[in-house]
Specification:
Helices cover 42% and strands 14% of the residues. It is α/β, with parallel strands linked by helices. Strands 7-6-8-9-11-10-15 form a seven-stranded mixed β-sheet, sandwiched between helices. Strands 1-2-3-5-4 form a five-stranded parallel β-sheet, sandwiched between helices.
Length: 622
């Protein structure tokens, strides 16, 4: 029986195998990679549209460079799946974004081909410049690349990096993956014609030869300088899209079709030979090759497991804290015209899509610029508006200085809707909301609410928007509510269950694990009380005493970092008034970053599920 010809992708175990392919095999490899991505990500969920868009670009990078020695820095990193498949990890895709499995972002501990960790936006040029400078200082000669998307280019840090990198003269290649937003729209036949000319190898070779006529330093030649000025003036008039980068000190190449491997390879080869700061501008199409993702690239940016044939989610979406927040804010905005909403490129994820439709003039998307979003909120509040900034906990970290300087310093009434607080699951270390419960209470005048149910979210958001003064945050998790669906009222701390042996202190949705643990402990003869904090800032003795005075053993359960956690603050407040319990125990995320995995798996591994809380109680009271 004749054996079927194996897929080319099956023979790819390293970038060296990509380099060994004939030109005719590359298009087949790209087709196979797309089928591979659709098949794999449909099973695990993940970032789909962005990876489908960079197939040819990633193949071209591995055709020209050696990422084991050359340094490839991804911005955000959700577009790294093709890179991982080509660098010996395609057999691990069944565990993509799973507990103990392959990460959905670049991780240097996984492979020498992952130069730097990624997860947040706009830092790639800064990181790559640091690597380029280290290369020069140590006398090495490898290439350094930063792969940044047009979305990440909306963050201010990107321009800080570009400004410094262009002035540095360090050999550095910035690949701008433009899949939706153009820096300066280029229209007309002339611009298209120039783009074609600039992406042809003959143009590069002529330019290289022409420079060589004037020696090693052509800019010292008056004739060369005159010709260069004339060429630059003409190009700026006809091709304005390149001027931003060239004014920063970069050589600008492109734009080119990001799905044309020949031109991509030629362009990247030329960029490497220039030995100076270079921007390679590449146009790609998000979701390319998969009709559902092409029709709706936003939904397929980050998606759960789906049916590959139809593109439909295998598990239908249900009510979540994010959707309840969005609906509640719309109702509040209908009552008060001062209410406005801010997002940092996360309208759908934060539940603000409904607000955007209902009140488009009061909706502001600041792109991936959380610091700017917080500062702008301060400006809005200073003029009498009530801005609500809906932002993921992990990205709010980028706004800390603005919260202090531009919001709290004048006691401005800015509302933070802190989504994805606590453990978020499969995106891993860079995305868990493990720190907002630590840093938000340090902001002077800040009130921090922690709803544990949809009912509490509605009431606390109403209080935050219409009743509170000064800066206020409402933090809530990803997903839905658990067994606790009540409204705990307005007290800072409320006792949900009596118990004389131990008191489990917690806040947010972990109250569900605390209540389940108390039930299990009761069966073992241990009477556990449960106290829920409705807010974690401000806190003082008068807030805590009604619920915690007289407790001889307290176990504080939190899904945040352990250093400076709420439990430690509570213990300090009680101790300062001579009411410290005999035992103050802590169960939290500790001092390490938490990996990827489902929330249930992570809680179990960290001892934050009901069984883990029971174990901590039994060990603590012995």
């Amino acid at each position: 029986m004749k054996r079927e010809t194996p897929m080319i992708l099956e023979t790819i175990n390293s970038p060296a195998d990509v380099k060994a392919l004939s030109r005719g095999e590359l298009d087949t490899l790209c087709d196979e990679l797309r089928r591979f991505l659709i098949e794999q990500v449909s099973q695990t969920g993940g970032h789909m549209a962005s990876n489908l868009g960079v197939v040819e670009l990633t193949v071209a990078i591995h055709r020209v460079f050696d990422t084991a020695s050359d340094r490839l820095v991804f911005d955000v990193g959700h577009q790294c799946y093709v890179h991982k498949a080509l660098t010996g990890r395609k057999e691990l895709f069944g565990s993509l974004r799973q507990f103990g499995g392959l990460s959905g972002f670049p991780k240097p501990y996984e492979s020498e081909h992952d130069a730097f960790v990624a997860g947040h936006a706009s830092n790639s040029v800064s990181v790559a410049l640091g690597m380029a400078r280290a290369r020069t200082l140590t006398g090495k000669n490898h290439s350094v690349l930063a792969l940044i998307g047009d979305g990440a280019l909306s963050g201010g840090l990107a321009y800080e990096g570009l400004n410094n990198a262009g002035a540095s003269k360090e050999p550095l290649i910035v690949i701008l993956n433009d899949n939706g937003m153009s820096i300066n729209p280029n229209v007309g036949a002339v611009s298209r014609h120039l783009g074609k000319i600039r992406s042809k190898p003959a143009y590069y070779h002529f330019k290289k030869w022409y420079r060589s006529l004037f020696g090693a330093e052509p800019m010292k030649s008056g004739l060369y300088r005159f010709n260069h000025r004339m060429k630059t003036s003409l190009k700026k008039a006809l091709w304005p899209g390149s001027t931003l980068f060239e004014d920063m000190g970069f050589n600008y190449l492109g734009p080119i079709n990001g799905h044309d491997i020949d031109r991509l390879c030629d362009m990247l080869q030329w960029a490497r030979e220039l030995r100076c700061p270079v921007v390679v501008h590449v146009h790609t199409e998000k979701g390319r090759g998969y009709a559902p993702a092409q029709r709706d690239p936003g939904r397929f940016h980050g998606i759960g497991p789906f049916d590959a044939a139809t593109g439909l989610l295998k598990k239908p979406e249900t009510e979540s804290f994010s959707s309840v927040f969005g609906k509640t804010l719309v109702s509040l905005a209908a009552r008060d015209p001062r209410v406005c909403a801010i997002t940092a490129a996360m309208a759908d994820g934060t539940g603000l899509d409904l607000f955007q439709k209902e009140f488009p003039k009061r909706f502001f998307d600041v792109a991936i610029a959380e610091g700017h979003g917080a500062a702008m909120a301060g400006g809005l509040a200073s003029q009498g508006m009530i801005p609500v900034f809906a932002v993921y906990s992990t990205f709010l970290q980028r706004s800390y200085d603005m919260l202090l300087h531009d919001v709290a310093l004048e006691g401005l009434h800015v509302v933070l809707a802190v989504d994805r607080a606590g453990l978020v699951g499969n995106d891993g270390e860079t995305h868990h909301g493990a720190f907002d419960a630590l840093f938000l209470p340090t902001v002077p005048g800040m009130t921090v609410y922690c709803p544990a149910s949809f009912a509490e979210l509605r009431q606390m958001l109403r209080s935050a928007v219409l009743e509170c003064e000064g800066p206020v945050a409402v933090r809530y998790p990803r997903g839905g509510e658990g067994r606790y669906r009540e409204d705990g009222g307005e007290a800072a701390a409320v006792r949900l269950r009596e118990g004389k042996d131990v008191t489990i202190l917690t806040y947010g949705v972990l109250v569900n694990q605390a209540l389940d643990a108390a039930d299990l402990l009761e069966k073992q003869g241990v009477h556990a009380g449960v106290v829920k904090l409705n807010r974690i800032a401000p806190l003082d003795y008068e807030d805590l005493a009604p619920a915690l005075s007289g407790c001889e053993c307290i176990l504080a359960v939190e899904d945040c970092c352990g250093s400076g956690c709420v439990g430690q603050r509570v213990g300090g407040i009680l101790a300062a008034r001579g009411s410290a319990p005999k035992r103050m125990l802590f169960k939290n995320l500790g001092r390490s970053f938490v990996p990827a995995g489902s929330v249930e798996e992570l809680r179990h591994s960290l001892g934050l599920d009901a069984e883990g809380v029971v174990k901590a109680v039994l060990e603590g009271i012995r």
